Fold this sequence. Notes:
Layout: H1 2-11, H2 26-37, E1 48-53, H3 56-65, H4 70-74, E2 77-84, H5 93-102, H6 107-120, H7 124-145, E3 149-153, H8 158-165, E4 172-181, H9 195-198
Antiparallel strand pairs: 1-2, 2-4, 3-4
The structure holds flavin mononucleotide.
Residues 13-14, 16, 69, 151-155, 176, 187, 190 line the site of flavin mononucleotide.
Amino acid sequence: MKQQLFELFNKRFACHLFQADRPIAAADLTYVLEAGRLSPSSFGLEQWKFVVLTSARHKQDLQAACFNQPQVGSAGAVVVILAKLADMDPDSDYVRRLLAREYPGDQFEGALKNYRGFHAATDVKAWSVTQCHIAAANMMTAATAAGLDSCAIGGFDPIEVRRQLDSAPTRYEPALILAFGYCAVDGGEKQRLPLDELVEYR
Ligand SMILES: Cc1cc2nc3c(=O)[nH]c(=O)nc-3n(C[C@H](O)[C@H](O)[C@H](O)COP(=O)(O)O)c2cc1C
């Protein structure tokens, strides 16, 4: 298990062009989405929504909103991860429902009070987007396990992405776009700093 997980981490790379004629099996796509669904989130509020695009027209339109990056149009499927904004309001039905699940019975009122204070002091958009990035990382690892390649796309015009998805700015913020498919080009050697440059033990 330990070995297999690290094989996946080493194998995944950012694919910059996919084999455009190779669709993704529905079961593999569901597997990747499940990995997102099972991800941890702050307060257990599951700040993500996954919009899946598989039609050539939708992918081509989205590519234009991603500074024309070809991995978007050539992918078998593209997942736009939207970060929830309005739903994060402490008075929303959504927060009440999910907090009641995470903090049942007597714990609920205290948890809601805590959350209210947190929400007032937080840049909610940035916080919500951060949660979506955690799901994204898990989805890319899962894609590798399913034999798929992927690319995270942070380079996009959020206004245009929102317009294409017909999504209100108060409701969702596009957090990250994930392109999945079978890569048409080589990933090259993995480039990472050594641990001793990244880690400080105290
Ligand atoms: C949040 C995020 C945004 C990214 N945005 C883009 C992007 O817009 N276009 C792109 O080609 N790669 C993008 N990448 C991929 C990175 O460039 C890539 O992961 C990094 O260079 C390391 O290479 P590797 O993933 O192949 O190991 C993004 C990665 C992350 C995590």
